[in-house]
């Protein structure tokens, strides 16, 4: 990792390189580029082609970007392998769907409510399971995920069981309704970008360093004064909150949800996105989500052989790049140089860590 | 009331399901023991066992006793192939940093998952996604009366086969050089290599043994239920995985006990609940077990990594 990039603003003015070449200039360049793709190129393509198919893929991708970024927060950064993430996605989706169809609440209420309800469930799940380590924790999340699925499927009075919930109103905000494909995409994209930004600030900070420390060795981190139990619970709750948000977006954009959207295989798909992108790397999680959503669509032409090709590509990508497309070390260096506000320095200008 | 005949029958049905879970859970346990990685493709081995059994039956109509060795052989071959494709390439990183890296461990887990997706889809292409019936001459559903209880002949066959296989496994693990190697590698892979054990070969053997058990479970269930499909391996795979973890990961008796417990509780649960809620019992048992026994029922304490 590049440790010799001092923060331009902490240097004496005479030493600071010109703004265009400094970390800040680059930071704006990357931020602008990403925003331009999300809010310029993709909407232009949707309008230009007028294809509802393209818009649908773009919306799905954005939702899965939230899911894989949030799973990366708990599994990649904090090291708690969760294989029940789709269940919290489901809780968020059902919370939003029920609140808006039964109680008629507006989107501005159902979106945060879905996140909070999922986070509440996440908290309740985290309390007893946090002392489990490694694979035991993973299996506990698998079990809880399947329990939630069974409840969604069988509690017919509330969830309508396998029939699912229909007629969920589209995203609307103070009278403005996202009823065209473009506006629906834009609304989802704004929320997705906001979620990724929050996760970016959480991961790429001292707080994120503490999470990485407990992932590497929680007993050691504990003895260094890090409140391991609390951090683990926090990271799990944060991840489930964002999964709930993603669920609410799914409910409001597709207008129909059913328990099968939130099965075990969906959790595994999200995990695959994180691992293919690079475990512990937030840019990797985003790239992985793009890859795993766009690839099956790009392979649509080969019809029945599509899933074989998807499995084979996934296998090859893991085989050739076992640490992911954007491995954690590379990704942290990249984020530091291009997005973060650089290094905190101690006297003498020695960089010590995130600001 | 407790000695209600119907209740007893449910327990026996549950035990036979539990035996199937146990056969699969042992495969999981053996493989997890030597590699410390969950083999997500184990359910596919089970499906392959069932389909190869069906193909042999429809093509040649051999006696039932001849089907079993064939399925065992196919299981061993698929286990070895699986190890070669999905696991061996990831052992090329031998430096300490890679071995401790969580990304590497999760990558191996997902490579087995990717292989299982490809295998399942290929089977879907060959056999179609629908249920396939087993020729009725081979079905193991004739009722057998034992006193007042009626038991399907399949249950008895499953009990007998499981008992034989468990006995053989005990013999293999505790009475042979190969078994000693397997136990040594699961205890400490590096240490086993230092004392001259060929760890690669031991791992391959473990996969072969575990997959033989899994494939046998597949054909037994096929004959017992009378229908097989490319998706049949998923549910028992997850249940067996759960049983392995409840039992404490490295303990074969623990895995077997928990598999039987899961099977019996599932089949009793269908008496009180509609079948949709049956899985809730399994997973509640899992979560309750883990809350009170964080290392599983028969697991040992946490080691320093």
From TrEMBL, chain B:
A Gene Ontology term for the protein's cellular component: plasma membrane
Membrane topology: Multi-pass membrane protein
Keywords assigned: Amino-acid transport, Cell inner membrane, Cell membrane, Membrane, Plasmid, Transmembrane, Transmembrane helix, Transport
Subcellular location as annotated: Cell membrane
A molecular-function term among this protein's GO annotations: L-phenylalanine transmembrane transporter activity
Record-annotated membrane-spanning stretches: 12-38, 45-61, 67-87, 107-128, 148-173, 203-224, 244-268, 280-298
InterPro entries: ABC_transp_permease, BCAA_transport_permease
Pfam families the record matches: BPD_transp_2
GO biological process, one term: L-alanine transport
Main localization of the protein described in the UniProt heading: membrane
Family: Belongs to the binding-protein-dependent transport system permease family. LivHM subfamily.
Listed name of the protein: Branched-chain amino acid ABC transporter permease
Source organism of this protein record: Azospirillum brasilense
